[in-house]
Description:
This protein is α/β, with parallel strands linked by helices. The protein has 2 domains: 2-136, Creatinase/prolidase N-terminal domain (Creatine Amidinohydrolase, Chain A, domain 1); 141-364, Alpha-Beta Complex (Creatine Amidinohydrolase), CATH 3.90.230. The protein is 34% helix and 23% strand. The chain is built from 10 helices and 17 strands. It has helices at residues 2-18, 30-36, 66-72, 88-94, 110-119, 129-136, 141-159, 171-184, 246-265, 272-285, and strands spanning 23-26, 48-52, 58-62, 78-82, 101-104, 124-127, 189-197, 218-226, 235-241, 297-299, 306-310, 323-326, 329-332, 336-339, 342-346, 351-353, 362-364. Helix 5 links the parallel strand 5 and strand 6 (124-127). Helix 9 runs antiparallel to helix 10 (272-285). One zinc ion is lined by residues 234, 298, 325, 327, 341.
Amino acid sequence: MTQDHHDRLDRARTAAGEAGIDALLITPGAALRYLTGYDALPLERLTCLIVPSHGPVSLVVPALEEPAARASVPEGLTVTAWPETDDPVDVVAAQLRGVRRVGLDDEMWAEKVLRFRAAMPAAEQTLAGPVLSRLRVRKSGAEIDALRAAGAAIDRVHARMGEWLRAGRTEAEVARDIAAAIVAEGHRQVDFVIVASGPNSASPHHDSGERVIEAGDAVVVDIGGTIEAGYCSDETRTYAVGEPSAEFRDAYAVLQRAQQAAVRRVGPGVTSGAIDAAARDALTDAGLGEYFIHRTGHGIGVETHEEPYIMPGSAEPVEPGMAFSIEPGFYVPGRHGARIEDIVVVTEAGVELLNHRPRELQVLPVR
Ligand code: ZN
Ligand code: ZN
């Protein structure tokens, strides 16, 4: 996606200028991956992309990282390698003489923030994140293709759940098998595996543990990874191992309607708050509102969680090209819980789902 990266750097430069920022300073993390494709490790040695509102973009890297950086960044980008004994903050500051306002990467280490402040005492420091999120939030066709591929890859993992999920195994054992499948089905890395069984399903971000799965358990399986193109997947399905309680089935049926209502509400110009309300109202009307304890969704791209956030009361309208999750759930402490999560993209006409596994409760054989 090299042409995409050149476009992104151009748009970042323009957006910085419009925000009154003379230069963005981007260190390893999601913003650097988004702007250049370079997946650099955050280290004590400084790697810093300089995006001035006027003038050429350049990347300052430690000499020993130079070959890796050159292999990753868009062709034509200036790469300056700093020798081991130089002070890289001075190397960057020398390129930024006279700047009055710099936008620092949201993920920049505090130690580097303070060194930049000392090296450029006249430059006001602000965050680069708000400038970049306006670009990142609307995906290009190539980005949506990548998210579609990620969605298909994680669908293939959920399709195989019956191979691993059964009574008598621990959550951790099942999670290990799922992690291997996330890679086998087309991701370059596993980002998270939540296997939350029985009463643990009432904890939305349960850490898969040593609990042995029992017949009749509800099991929330929320999994995701990153594909080679750098884009993330994130999909939740709730399974039952053998027949669950009637109370659980009834609540699950409400959840399924709530999730569908929110997906159907998505379209250009609809506010995030209205999408959230579509799910929340359906659960509240059935007496389950108090058990829906999180927002309805989050944006996804080069990070699993990014803007936009689908929150109660948000007046932000969604726009074509935005990609985010729709993932209502209910969590009854000590008893059970469930969540259904799909990634959707806003289109000119409405909405496209990027996950396609069945949303009805999947009852798996006990053994
Ligand atoms: Zn998830
Ligand atoms: Zn999610």
